[in-house]
Amino acid sequence: MKKSTIWSIVVVAVLALGGAGAYFYSSQQKQSQEQTASSSYSSHMQAGKEAVKAKKYSQAADEFDQAYQAKATAQAKNYQAQAENLADSVKLAKTTVKYASALNLAQKAQEQNGGYSVMTSQAKKLVKQLKAVKDNYDSEIKPLLNKAAKAMEDGDYDSAVSTYSSILDLPYINGAYYAKVRSNVKDLLKEAKSKQEDSSSSSESSSSSSSDSSSKSSSKESSSSSSSAASSSASSSSNQAEGSGTSNNDKVGGSTVTSRDVQQIRTQLDNLGESTAGWSPQDLINLFNYAYQQGHTTIDSITKDDVEGYLKSGK
Fold it and tell me: From what superkingdom does this record's organism come (predicted)?
């Protein structure tokens, strides 16, 4: 056999052995990678399930996603979608009042094809809870909020404060899914109380101002009355000093002369042709008293002589 032929055979054999070795190495490496991926997949899937038990749905969704990256299975993908819907549902219910949207997401999680049985059971309970929360909000809380808002618009702050307080007194209001409602109502109640205090202060100020005004008016009236009384007293004293026939007395013959009597005296003087322009009520009473002393005991019996005699006596 030729030397060249032998070397050719050797080369072919070496190449064959090398190829076989490379194939074996590649196969071993692939198997190792698959084992690593499988191990990582199982680890993340288990971690996701543990997170689900603790109701940490965002963490669970992340674990299921990593499991899918390690090994793309429909199960990992379904679990991830189910966990994400639950996470979004709970977040909406706890941080907003979008209960309809939260309920819709919980129902999707409950109906997830190929979902994790534990999550499906939890989703079913969540759906029931959110239906009750939504019903309470729509039928009781929202009407009370509208009532309080109307009271605020009308300036009836007492009613608004009372209504907001009644919401915070509801037996279920401290539940986890009413957190946003509580926060909103507390802010609204604070605003209503502030308006209530401002309104009360304004009313007190107005009342005080009115009282001061009334007091000043009363003081002026009292002062005016005092001045009038003083003037009347001075006038009376002056009249008494001017003539013995005059006096500041509203009685004639023991009977009180009324304002109606005074008017009748004035009318009698007019009938006698006497001008009464300068006669005060007291002058007329004094005239009647003078006439009475002359024997004319009734108003219609007063004569011109009585008038002249009274005037001469010192009116």
Answer: Bacteria
Place of tokens 């109606």: 260
* 301 is a domain residue: yes
* Residue 112 sits in the same domain as residue 186: no
Distance, in Å, from the CA atom of 121 to the CA atom of 306, rounded to the nearest integer, reads 120
Q: Which domain holds residue 289?
A: 251-312
The Cα 57–Cα 122 span in angstroms is 11
219-235 pLDDT, tens per residue? 555 444 444 444 444 34
pLDDT digits (tens, 9 = 90+) for 8-62: 665 555 555 555 555 555 566 666 666 777 889 999 999 999 999 999 999 999 9
Contact call for residues 187 and 148 (beta carbons, < 8 A): no
- Domain C-terminal end among 181, 198, 215: 198
**Residue for token digits 């090398």?**
18
Q: Name the H helices within the chain.
A: 3-53, 57-70, 74-95, 99-110, 117-136, 142-153, 157-168, 179-242, 259-271, 281-293, 304-312
Which pTM was predicted? Answer: 0.56
Asked if residue 194 is part of any domain, the answer here is yes
Q: Of all helices (H) and strands (E), which one includes residue 256?
A: strand 255-256
Domains held by the chain: number: 3
- Which residues, including other chains, have CB under 8 Å from residue 136's CB and lie 6 or more apart? 170, 172
